[in-house]
Amino acid sequence: MADLFDKFDGIIAERNALLKSGALDPFKVTMDQVLSETEAMIDGRHTILVGTYNYMGMTFHPDVMDAAEEALRASGTGTTGSRVLNGTYSSHVAVEEALKEFYGAEHAIVFSTGYLANLGLCSTLTGKGDYIIIDADSHASIYDGCAMGNADIVRFKHNSPEDLEKRLRRLPPEAGKLVVLEGVYSMLGDVAPLKELVAVAKSFDAMVLVDEAHSMGFIGPSGRGVTEAEGLEDQVDFIIGTFSKSVGTVGGFAVSNHPKFEVLRLVCRPYMFTASLPPSVVASAEKSIRLLMHADNRRAHLWENSKALHYGLRSQGFGLATPEAESAIIAVILPDQETTVRMWNALLLRGIYVNMARPPATPAGIFLLRLSLCASHTAEQVDTILEAFAAAANDIGLALPLPEAAE
Amino acid sequence: MTQTQADVCNVLYGIIGPFNTKGIGLKPETTFAGDLELDSLTVMDLVAAIEDEFDIILPLNMLPDLETIDQVAAAVVSIQQK
């Protein structure tokens, strides 16, 4: 009898070899105690968290926690139902109102996660005979949304307006088209040339969706993301976002000014066929979103942290994915998987938690340690992170500067 | 100018060359995943190269049905004739 798990033998063998080499298991890191938005106890070690996407540091904000607690006491632990049945409480409507105010948009729909928001819009907006045109480095939720839908899927070279144009030119002019972009790409922390990409998309009458998951809160004058920063809010048809990064809880959303947008509540399966968010979650999200509208100090400090970390790592001779800090994600390019695992491991033992990434999550052949800054990191913590990087490189015998740093 | 499936196969051998790191002898029945051991990312980069060579769009959702070089050639001919 065929064992359905045989197809995973390669992955199991690779993982066993990794663990045999003495590396800590990256998939088993447990935060035994979370001390603050920037610190936790991991395996008995006091650890600075610099890989959490908790950009604006809202997870322990007293007002946000109060809102959650109040809603928990008032409305219970969960809705036990879909948004289209018993799962819409006044708090779900209130967080959608807050999103409309935050984005200055006519409509907002909240999903149970950001993944579901992308899955929902990508699979529902385009149908048979339409085209969905996506950036090669799109997040898995965008690829999965495309796979779930019935449109023809076209992929263009990462952040290349020329390649997008070349591909749009080959499509039937009369066909429905949706171009899917991201403001900040989470693997390399690079910002899309949105102005050029949107101009190309619009010249072929395509609708445009921008995922602003990794820019909400701190890019753009009001924190609405790259779309706002580039002055494109009247040209982008749909913005996707998440509550699990700057907002500091969990959930996803889509906002739009399209007059028929609300029909998605009746046709979008990842919205309809899952339970809605617990009232405590949406209450904390609403509070957090309202605070983010006026979080200029946090925004400024997050940028200081990102720039300081980028400058420090570059000065030490690490190769970074972007020439300067374009977002709050700083990606360190390492030569191979083994070095990346050993470096990640050495950092963890020194009390620094970062993310490790490799293909296929990263562009082909690139191994990364990714750091995401928080507005609550102090300048001293950033210094400690930098010292730990130098020490960890020394621990594993990694000579700096790396050849990757020359690029 | 329309090309036959065999013509397209010959062009494809050239495009696949740089992706054929194992130096496998290319035949119409050569498979991408099995024989050439290409991962999903590499396959998508290969698709982009094929699209540009023939000035067509080869939607990613067609890929599950295209296992061999010959099947891709047939798809290219069929798209060109549309």
Keywords:
heterodimer, A: 407 residues, alpha/beta, Aspartate Aminotransferase, domain 1, Aspartate Aminotransferase, domain 2, 2 domains, 7-stranded mixed beta sheet, 4-stranded mixed beta sheet, 39% helix, B: 82 residues, mainly alpha, Non-ribosomal Peptide Synthetase Peptidyl Carrier Protein, Chain A, 3 helices, 49% helix
Q: What would you say this structure looks like, in words?
A:
The complex is a heterodimer of chains A (407) and B (82). Chain A is an alpha/beta fold. Chain A folds into 2 domains: 16-49 and 296-406, Aspartate Aminotransferase, domain 1; 62-292, Type I PLP-dependent aspartate aminotransferase-like (Major domain) (Aspartate Aminotransferase, domain 2). Chain A contains 14 helices and 17 strands. Chain A has helices at residues 9-20, 62-75, 90-103, 114-125, 140-148, 161-169, 194-203, 226-229, 264-267, 269-272, 279-292, 296-316, 337-349, 379-395; strands spanning 33-36, 39-42, 45-49, 107-111, 131-135, 152-156, 177-182, 184-185, 190-191, 207-211, 238-242, 252-256, 319-320, 329-334, 352-353, 355-357, 367-372. Chain B is built from 3 helices and no strands. Chain B has helices at residues 5-16, 40-54, 69-81. In chain B, helix 1 packs across helix 3 (69-81). The A-B interface holds A 131, 136, 146-147, 151-155, 157, 166-167, 170-171, 359-360, 363-364 and B 39-42, 44-45, 47-48, 51-52, 55-57, 59-61.
